[in-house]
Structures
1.
Amino acid sequence: MTGISTDGTFASAANTNLATQLAIKTYVDSQITAQDLDFQGDSGGALSIDLDSETLTIAGGTGITTAGSGNTVTATLDDTAVTAGSYGSATAIATFTVDAQGRLTAAGTAAIATTLTVDGDSGTGGVDLLTDDLRIVGTANEISTSVAKSGTDVSVTVALPDDVTIGQDLTVTRHLVVNGNTTLGNGSTDTTQTSGNLVVGGNLTVSGTTTSVNSTETTLTDPMIELAKDTSSQDGLDRGLRFKWHDGSSVKTGFFGFDIQTERFSFTKDEDLSGGDNASSPWHDAQFGGVYAGNINLGITGDNEIDTASGNLTIDSAGGTTTIDDILVVSGAASAASLTLTTDLAVAHGGTGVSSFTGDAVIVSNAGGTALSYLTSSLGTVGDIVQFNASGVPIVTNVIDGGTY
């Protein structure tokens, strides 16, 4: 059985009841009046609009213009200069998520840093990339800087200028190449020191007072060493080598070189050079395997032998006497086995005191017995005889005197 219902709320709707036209209109009017549209923006609370009595307006903010046409609302960025931070956030940008239907939905914000922090050897600064300029400045007379742009590449060059003055310590951990003239120190008080090797490719000039070499071994490839190069006048100083040595009790100073007073090459093992570079006698022994001294060779031909390279060997003492303590052996060829004396060998030394004899004479001693005398026949008479006169002196005569008996 089908009935007709006039209930405008449809609270007890059923398939067996038919709604009247008035009931349906009453229900639709009541539903349209009660419908609202709920929405919410990036900021602010939840909002709603009554679809029956209110209008939804989509308004553009700074730099954005909206326009409606038909069923479409279009949002357009204004064609004007936009100042950072004049709309939206200056330090944040919206991030979006794409849902399953390909729609972009706001999911949150991410911070964008606009400040660049610069930390130098001394001090720290911040540069706002939106408003500030970053300057790379060199120190006067120490560092120069230049900036160049090629396409999208910007190059910053930091270099030393032509003339460099460094007021603080400079540490170079790798190779340092310096072209041109280089001055280290102020030339009077500064000290230049290297912990490693020092290689000088050219000439080395040391213009100081004292040059000290504290090395274990000094090796020179020079074939000659020149001392006192700038000598221009007499200074009275010796030239040579001075050295230290220890005799077991104390440190001694030795000298080996040219003695300017004697103008000879000299050696002393214990010298006081505190007053200057001038060694003095007594000189000390020097030891060699053999010596070439002028034309005399000592120990060259053989040990214990003295030879001459040319000429004769002369022994001349300042006191006038040459003493030979051992046996004198004269040897040589038969024709040369002789001893030649410039001065006659005295009778006291086993000689005759004369270098030649008087011919055809009788040899007798002189009155003092220190030399030889000669008796000759001065009369030239046959039968001359030698006899003693009344004084006991040997004479030559032709008179026979029997004497007194």
Note: The chain has a mean pLDDT of 78.
2.
Amino acid sequence: MAEAAQTNLQTATVQPPRRRSLARRIDWKWLGVVPFFLFVAAFQLFPSLSIAARSFVDEAGKFTLDNIAGLNQPLIMNSYFSSIKISLISAIWGGILGFGLAWAVTIGGLPGAIRSAVLSFCGVAANFGGIPLAFAFIATLGRTGVLTKALTSLGIPLYQNFSLYGFWGICITYTYFQIPLMVLVLTPALEGLRKEWREAAENLGASRLEYWRYVALPVLLPSILGALTLLFANAFGAQATAFALVGGGAGQNLVVTVLVGAQFSTDSFANPGLGNALALGMMVIIGITIFIYGWMRRRAERWQSR
């Protein structure tokens, strides 16, 4: 008994202090993501919740559904439909051209220097938007733009059937930043195609077209659809480029993002409650798009991990 008591006494004397054991239990690696969560909460989560709450409040601070009911106005519905059509068209154009460019720099066998230059340019061009992009297109395709004057001198009056400041002008402008984004998103998926799959298809007698039809495209399809949904959301949420092109007049009938800004900044259209409801509708559409993108992304990763 005396020996057991002495052993317990020695064990108790060598136990580390409680402060040291508590320090060991703290996982300090989470400290690095604290600024990220604070940023998301301050600039995304809190504004989103604020918009959702203010969509159901009138000027007196009382609950109302008038703001949501106001979304049924023809002007607002047309702006939503126009934004959706512009986003779809620019996403499809950017997806097709971006897929071809991504294929050329990955599977097409272009030199490494060209590949690096293309990917570097895409990294810059994907973030080149807003007012600078609009002014660049105005200087090129505006009524007095360089390309417009060159076509006019050749006997091709561009502005008889086209206008940069209308529907198709915005589609072309948006396509500029959609192409590099498609390249950046789809390049990893194309690089994930294994050579063993192509060699196995060729050993079984499949042609190149059959390989792409029955092997490569089914594997790439989730990545392609996910990239297209991301391009759609990217165009649907753009505001500065469209505002610089069409301003506050025709733009209010064309793009919903410009119409949202008009509800807070102009005297004739000012209605903060309706503006919050418009933004809430955009959040719902973009939320559905992001959900589809995430689902497609998980399916693509599942295929490429096999």
Note: The radius of gyration is 28 Å.
